């Protein structure tokens, strides 16, 4: 009896090579959404399954849900990202993090007679089912399912033990994936806000090499009007400006890793075009004890082009100040530095019409001078809106 139990336990174990491969594939998938497919495909092979499915979002209301499935899925290819429309499966409301099979929930005759089996499973060669609802912080329960055809073997205690052994790694991989996605979404939102405020941002590593730049920075650097990239490094056009720029960047690098990062330095960059100087601020990026050295972000250079046009949303400005479309267009032209006469010409309207619009704008915004109007427009949230 003991010998049989030991043999069964041994069968349920993965080889070191198998375990290493599946765990590596799960954590690779946590870092890159596209790699969930190879990870699930390897699980399909490991369990001799015809399908392995990870239901990322259960259906609710009009939301059809979302799942990743591997196997011979109709619709092209072996890997499909698809909606998950099944709201009445017999596997709902299972205890979290507990592996189950069909046999745990119902008899074979009940399974064959269920509408879910008849309308969904039978036509796709699904008969044996093993699954688990995985709890993840902040993302609820994700549904993991492994299936075999009727001609295949039932899921054994050894299969269940293998699934239970992988469950902690699958849960952690999903948790890491969710956290990284959330961080990426927040990062993209902040980067969008910086760009909408017409602030250029260049990220430098400890050697001074440019690691990243936003679209506003790319436009400024591509123009070569005051700042440019030479040999992968940020430089100013004029030697005197460049010496000062390199000095404050070196000072930032010297403070990299220090506890007090509150000190920032600023300078003005002259432009060959004769336009208003570029404003530059250099700030140190907090270092990580786990990721120091070259290739890591060490400083951020913020650049403001005072002559650049405002990216304020006309729709948002219209809603914020209850302006008409014509009034909004005029207010934005004035915000971009045009005089009333220049704005009228740009909008192809009469000067008297522009003056009438301006009086109405003053009344609605509560300001009395054009300079005040420009100030409230520039300081409003209109630039942060994605509306056109």
From TrEMBL:
InterPro entries: Sig_transdc_resp-reg_C-effctor, Tscrpt_reg_LuxR_C, WH-like_DNA-bd_sf
Residue intervals of the HTH luxR-type domain: 316-381
Pfam families per record: GerE
Top-rank taxon: Bacteria
Record's protein name: Helix-turn-helix transcriptional regulator
């Amino acid at each position: 009896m003991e010998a049989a139990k030991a043999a069964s336990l041994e069968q349920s174990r993965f080889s070191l090579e198998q375990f290493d491969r599946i765990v590596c594939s799960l954590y690779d998938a946590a870092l890159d959404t596209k790699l969930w497919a190879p990870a699930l495909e390897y699980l399909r092979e490991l369990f001799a399954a015809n399908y392995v499915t990870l239901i990322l979002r259960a259906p609710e209301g009009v939301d059809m849900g979302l799942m990743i499935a591997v196997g011979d899925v109709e619709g092209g290819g072996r890997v499909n990202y698809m909606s998950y429309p099944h709201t009445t499966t017999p596997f709902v409301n299972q205890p979290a993090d507990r592996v189950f099979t069909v046999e745990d929930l119902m008899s074979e005759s009940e399974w064959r007679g269920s509408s879910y089996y008849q309308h969904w499973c039978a036509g796709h060669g699904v008969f044996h089912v093993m699954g688990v609802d995985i709890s993840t912080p902040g993302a609820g329960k994700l549904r993991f399912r492994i299936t075999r055809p009727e001609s295949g073997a039932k899921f054994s205690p050894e299969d269940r033990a293998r699934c239970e052994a992988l469950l902690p790694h699958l849960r952690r991989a999903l948790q890491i994936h969710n956290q990284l996605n959330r961080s990426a979404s927040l990062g993209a939102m902040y980067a969008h806000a910086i760009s909408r405020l017409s602030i250029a941002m260049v990220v430098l590593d400890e050697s001074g090499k440019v690691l990243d730049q936003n679209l506003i920075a790319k436009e400024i650097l591509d123009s070569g009007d005051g700042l440019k990239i030479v040999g992968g490094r940020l430089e100013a056009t004029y030697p005197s400006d460049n010496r000062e720029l390199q000095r404050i960047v070196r000072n930032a690098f010297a403070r990299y890793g220090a506890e007090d990062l509150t000190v920032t330095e600023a300078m003005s960059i002259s432009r060959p075009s004769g336009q208003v100087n570029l404003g530059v601020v250099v700030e140190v990026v907090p270092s990580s004890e786990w990721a120091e050295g070259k290739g890591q972000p060490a400083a951020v250079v913020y650049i403001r082009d005072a002559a650049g046009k405002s990216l304020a949303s006309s729709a948002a400005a219209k809603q914020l100040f209850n302006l008409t479309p014509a009034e909004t267009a005029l207010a934005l032209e004035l915000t971009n530095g045009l005089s009333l006469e220049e704005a009228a010409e740009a909008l192809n309207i009469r000067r008297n019409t522009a003056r009438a619009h301006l009086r109405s704008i003053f009344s609605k915004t509560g300001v009395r001078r054009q300079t005040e109007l420009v100030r409230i427009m520039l300081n409003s949230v209109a630039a942060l809106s994605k509306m056109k």
